[in-house]
Amino acid sequence: MKFLFLLIMGLSLTINPTEPTLEDFVFTQELLPKNCSFKEVTEGARLPCKATTNPYVSNDPAFVNCFAGMMLRDEALTQKVKKALFSVYMDTNEVGVFGLEADSEESALQIVAHLEDKAPNDEGSSLLQSGPIVILLWQDRGKTEAYETLKSLIEKQMEK
């Protein structure tokens, strides 16, 4: 009986793999181009919404409400966010990976539609969504190898 339970659980995990979490979108140095790394946080640096590190992932309501509010500028949608990710990489210029984990896939789709309405045809960013996860990848001054590498890594994580 115990064996049958383990077999069924193993099959269900294979058929229904777990959805990614925001932590899955924090990428290690080994995966990045050699000239790209997390932007160093110097003493006295001001990070958004009282983030304390780069990268920063939290479900703390104060951080989530501040960061989601900053990204969305929509109170109703902000209330649907459970967790947020702030990360900035540096190569020739900054590349940001900002993430929101919504309370459902439906909420995530509403967030994507809202962000697309706010910045239609924004060539400096990519908006990606899988399940309840929404990732905004952005770069100042044109897309570089680091941007393209991060986009590919994000897409691979979302396919899992």
Please give a structural write-up.
By secondary structure, the protein is an alpha+beta fold. The chain has one domain. Helices cover 37% and strands 23% of the residues. The protein contains five helices and six strands, in the order H-E-E-H-H-E-E-H-E-E-H. Strand 5 and strand 6 form a beta hairpin. The longest helix has 15 residues. The two termini are 30 Å apart. The N terminus is likely disordered.
Keywords:
160 residues; 5 helices; single chain; disordered N terminus; alpha+beta; 23% strand; 6 strands
Number of helices: 5
Q: What class do helices, strands and sheet pairing give?
A: alpha+beta
What is the string of SSEs from the N terminus onward? Answer: HEEHHEEHEEH
Point out poorly predicted stretches: 1-16
> Distance N terminus to C terminus?
30 Å
Radius of gyration: 17 Å
Q: Please indicate the count of domains.
A: 1
The percentage of residues in β strands lies in 15-25%
Task: Summarize the topology.
Blueprint: H1 2-15, E1 37-38, E2 56-58, H2 61-72, H3 75-78, E3 81-90, E4 94-102, H4 105-118, E5 125-130, E6 133-139, H5 145-159
Antiparallel strand pairs: 1-3, 2-3, 3-4, 4-6, 5-6
